[in-house]
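Q: Sequence in, structure out?
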Amino acid sequence: MSVAACAAIVERGDPDRFLAAMAAPVAARDVLFPIYAFNVEIARAPWMSEEPLIAEMRLQWWADALGEIAGGGPVRRHEVATPLADVLDADGARILERCIDARRRDAQRLRLETVPELRAYLAATGGALIWAATRALDPGRGWGPSDAARAEAAGTLSALANYLLAVPALLARGVNPLPEMSERDFEALLTEVLAEADRATAGRPARAQKIAELAAWRARGIVIRALRTPEAIVAGHLAESEFARRAALLWRSLQLWGDGGRGGAPVRAGARGSEPPRSPPPKGREPRRQSGTPPDTSKSSRIEARVSAFGSRTSRTRPSCCGIRR
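A: Exactly. Output:
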């Protein structure tokens, strides 16, 4: 029941978010890994059984765990639920309930019939996750509606990119992943999501926002490629080269060591009152030195080596189909 156990779950189940968390400061990892591990658990819960009732029971287990966290009382002991309770406050737990509600559609094998339904699903699965992570990274900050809107827009873009990459897997499970839409409708959807994310993230971000949004580092490029060449979804060419993938994350992570964004308060955990102990990195990983100072030239090379090492172990989903009418 440790952050290291959560990190192992994320490494196996969500390689992109694992890389993003490893590129963040050490203190931020203690916050991000429990939240990302929770997301892995609820994302796979609907697909672990062909019986919708069993899938619903798994999701309800997590809904009950979030209810315990929100209530402020004892929380069930579990390798993810226990560390998750250390980084979420009551509002953070309620935010993540949106993720579970969206996953109930997956458990029931309900098709997304309209574009608004798809957008609501993306906002709940991606936007709520980034918003919960942002708040948990700096629980003492006075976050406002504009911050929530920023997180939702960035998360919706991230979720859209991941959803497009997952189209083949969904089709293999007998799920028609996209609503009926014309090619023009499809282009409008992608264009609107990109524009909304660009508008919402145009301001100067707080440090916690920069860190939480690291997980979306691939999203813009993937969606732009889908917009320019929709057939790339069928051909499996949405994913960038491995070199470009690592370089983009490296660049984003180096920006964390700048002026700290809007407000320079250090990232901290312990939303329920006590900061969890620092955990060692997953087996085989070199520990990082904590520092609040800008990196020297040697730090840049260490970060690049770390991202490269982890990137070489991950895999990418290659889409092969997309239900778009021409």
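Residues 273-322 have pLDDT under 50 and may be disordered.
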